[in-house]
Amino acid sequence: MTTKPTILVARAIFPDDLVKLQDRYEVISNQADQVFTPDELRNHLASVDGALVTGSERIDQSALADAKRLKIVANISVGYNNFDVPAMTAAKVMATNTPDVLTDTTADFGFALLMATARRITESEHWIRNGQWDKWSIVHNPLGMDLHHSTLGIIGMGRIGQGIAKRALGFGMRVVYHNRKRLSEADEKACGARYLDKETLLREADHVILVVPYSAESHHLIGAKEIALMKPTATLVNIARGGIVDDAALAAALKAKTIFAAGLDVFEGEPKVHPELLKLSNVVLAPHIASATEKTRRAMIALAAENLSAALEGKRPPSLINTELWQA
Ligand code: 8YV
Questions:
Q1: CA separation, residue 144 to residues 111, 119, 233 (Å)
Q2: Average pLDDT of the residues of the chain
Q3: Which atom of ligand 1 is found nearest the CA of 266?
Q4: Which of 111, 138, 169, 286 is deepest in the core (most CB within 10 A)?
């Protein structure tokens, strides 16, 4: 009789997905969904062959200190700034993520947040809920900013950024973008997007949306200096990661109305939110839900599980990040 591998599922998942995993593995699960302390995470990783984790689990040298039999940590997330990849490679632990399956859902949400921000949808909903319809004036309040025929600046032109650009074309928007690497001519054409340096983009765009991965280089990519370049009528949307925007500087700009409004799905120090942001009506806040549809979350779990099973069977996981661990 062969023994089943043991795996950790670090956060609550759909019960039927958990049952499928339990058919194949001994599973340590966390359906109570309480984020593990660093000690709990290290102790669990010490006793498993593989793990499914999310952005709330930091996988670094200290988490891996006792993980002698661990082969893979599969992130249920495309972003993997919760991984210290060099530390994982040094420990010979494969790192995987979930690209592609969430691109359209996340691009849809980027657009939804942009529209809610520019057209003041949540702010005016609050008037209704708070019995303040009298704040409304038939002609002049509330007034938002148009998306159609305006200029959209996309910072970070990977799969999701390109998905947003393609949606913007349907709104008749002019699309400009900035990215570490310029797209091929064919990809620029498909997105109808023109490359600009970051500063020019910030000056020209009516709406700026951030879709860059978080790293030491992208930390505070948008701070007071960058916000000061934006038009007073502009909006800023962050669906990338907390820490890419200096939230204190953004709150100050929104308070002083040096930009029109912001939409944030991610926050510096998440799940904490900068207290000044909570006081402002010209910011739309969402609790990191850009990929949150059932279909997409199930697809993310399925891809993470596929990565995990490949690694445990000695095959190459489809979305392996530290490819140097794989000798074909
Ligand atoms: C996840 C995300 O929900 O994929 C990403 O990068 O930010 C989200 O889709 C989150 O990171 C949970 O792991």
A1: 15, 4, 9
A2: 97
A3: 7
A4: 111
Residue 262 to residue 218: CA distance in whole angstroms: 19
* Helix 103-118 with 159-170: angle, nearest 10 deg: 50
Measured from CB, residues less than 6 Å from any atom of ligand 1 are 54-55, 76-79, 102, 291
**Domain spans, the chain:** 6-99+294-327, 103-285
- Looking at the CA of residue 98, tell me the nearest atom of ligand 1: 4
Take atom 8 of ligand 1 and give the residue whose Cα is closest: 77
**Residue 79 alpha carbon to ligand 1 centre in Å:** 6
Distance in Å, CA 233 to ligand 1 centroid: 30
Residues found in the chain: 328
* 3 state SS of 17: helix
DSSP E strand boundaries for 265-323: 283-285
C-alpha pair distances (Å), 105 with each of 56, 112, 195, 228, 300:
21, 11, 25, 31, 11
In what helix (H) or strand (E) does residue 264 lie, and over which residues does it extend?
Answer: strand 261-264
Residues designated catalytic: 241, 270, 288
Mean pLDDT of 278-297: 98
pLDDT digits (tens, 9 = 90+) for 178-233: 999 999 999 999 999 999 999 999 999 999 999 999 999 999 999 999 999 999 99
From the options 3.40.50.720, 1.20.1300.10, 2.40.110.10, 3.40.50.10420, give the CATH code of 6-99+294-327: 3.40.50.720
Q: Which CATH superfamily is domain 103-285 in?
A: NAD(P)-binding Rossmann-like Domain (3.40.50.720)
